[in-house]
C-alpha cells in the first residue's frame, strides 16, 4: 500500500512561511488519514477520500477555497480514474457544490461519465448534493486585489492498494481570473490518468499539461515498458521544450513513487506505512 498527494505549488516569493508550514502540516495529516483509510478501502475509494479532505481545506485551490474567475464566479473541475476498471469520470466547471470529486465518483456508474457546467450541477442536485458556496473571504480579497497569490493549489492523489490496484483523482478551482468557459486539465486524461500499470495526477498550467498530455503520456510510457523514472524524465524534457509549467505525482504497479516539478515547488506528501516524505 502506498499513497501520494499534492496540493499544487508553493511560491516563496508570493506566499508566507506560515502558509508553507500550514501546507506541510495539512498534507502530513491528510496523507496519514488517507493511508489509514487505504487499509480497508480500494485505491479508487481512497483517492476520492484524500481529495475530499484536500478540497475541504481552504489552503488549496479546490473545493472550499477555489479561485474566482474573471466574471466573479467559481467553477470547479474534478476527475477520478480507476486504473483497475480503466474508467474515467469527471465534472468540468461545476458551480456551488462542496466536493466536486464526490460527483465525479458518483458519475462512475453512468454511461455518460463526464459532465460540464449546468448539466453537471443539475445532475448533482438531482442526486442529492446540496447547494454549497465554496467561496472564502481570502479568495474574494485576492480577486478584488487582482492578485494571483493564492493560485496554483490544485489537489490530487494517487493510491496503490493492497491488491496492487491503482487510482488517481484530481480537483481544481482553475487558474484564477480565467475567461468564462475555460477548461482545466484536471478533468482530462492529460491531468489525471491511471491504468493497471501506473497512475498520475498533475498540477500547473492546464494549457501546458494538455499540450504535453502529461499524465496520459507517463502512464502509456510505463505501460509500454519504460521505468517510471525514465517516463518522468522524457515527459518533463518534452514539457521543457514548450516551456511548460507543471508538476506530477505517480505510483506504478511495482509500487514505485515519483514526483517532479518543472518549476519549484510542488507541494506534496507521500506515505507507504513506513517512509514518509513531505515537500521542503
Ligand atoms: N491545472 C490547473 C488548471 O490549469 C491549475 C493548477 O494546477 O493550479 O486549471
TrEMBL record:
The active site is at residue 154. The keyword Hydrolase applies. Substrate binds at residues 182-185, 203-206. Coiled coil: none annotated. One of its GO terms (molecular function) is hydrolase activity, acting on carbon-nitrogen (but not peptide) bonds, in linear amides. Pfam families: Asparaginase_2 (PF01112). The record marks 153-154 as: Cleavage. CDD domains: Asparaginase_2_like_3. InterPro entries: Ntn_hydrolases_N (IPR029055), Peptidase_T2 (IPR000246). One of its GO terms (biological process) is proteolysis. Transmembrane segments: none annotated. This is Isoaspartyl peptidase. It comes from Kaistella treverensis.
Amino acid at each position: 500500500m502506498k499513497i501520494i498527494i499534492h496540493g499544487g505549488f508553493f511560491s516563496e516569493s508570493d506566499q508566507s512561511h506560515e502558509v508553507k508550514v500550514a501546507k506541510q502540516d495539512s498534507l502530513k495529516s491528510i496523507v496519514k488519514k488517507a493511508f489509514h483509510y487505504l487499509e480497508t478501502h480500494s485505491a479508487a475509494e481512497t483517492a476520492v477520500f484524500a481529495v475530499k479532505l484536500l478540497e475541504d481545506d481552504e489552503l488549496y485551490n479546490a473545493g472550499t477555497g477555489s479561485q474566482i474567475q474573471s466574471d466573479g464566479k467559481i467553477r470547479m473541475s474534478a476527475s477520478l480514474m480507476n486504473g483497475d476498471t480503466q474508467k474515467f469520470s469527471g465534472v468540468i466547471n461545476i458551480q456551488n457544490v462542496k466536493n466536486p470529486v464526490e460527483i465525479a465518483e458518483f458519475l462512475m456508474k453512468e454511461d455518460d461519465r463526464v459532465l460540464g457546467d449546468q448539466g453537471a450541477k443539475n445532475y448533482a442536485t438531482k442526486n442529492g448534493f446540496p447547494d454549497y458556496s465554496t467561496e472564502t473571504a481570502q479568495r474574494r480579497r485576492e480577486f478584488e486585489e487582482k492578485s494571483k497569490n493564492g493560485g496554483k493549489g490544485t489537489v490530487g492523489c494517487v493510491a496503490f492498494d493492497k491488491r496492487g490496484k491503482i487510482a488517481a483523482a484530481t480537483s481544481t478551482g482553475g487558474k484564477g481570473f480565467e475567461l468564462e468557459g475555460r477548461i482545466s486539465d484536471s478533468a482530462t486524461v492529460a491531468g489525471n490518468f491511471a491504468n493497471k500499470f501506473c497512475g498520475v495526477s498533475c498540477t500547473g498550467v492546464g494549457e501546458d499539461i494538455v499540450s504535453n498530455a502529461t499524465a496520459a503520456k507517463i502512464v502509456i510510457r510505463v505501460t509500454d515498458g519504460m521505468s517510471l523514472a525514465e517516463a518522468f524524465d522524457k515527459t518533463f524534457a518534452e514539457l521543457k521544450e514548450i516551456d511548460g509549467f507543471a508538476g506530477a505525482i505517480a505510483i506504478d504497479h511495482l509500487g514505485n513513487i515519483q514526483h517532479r516539478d518543472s518549476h519549484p515547488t510542488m507541494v506534496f506528501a507521500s506515505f507507504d506505512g513506513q517512509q514518509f516524505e513531505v515537500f521542503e
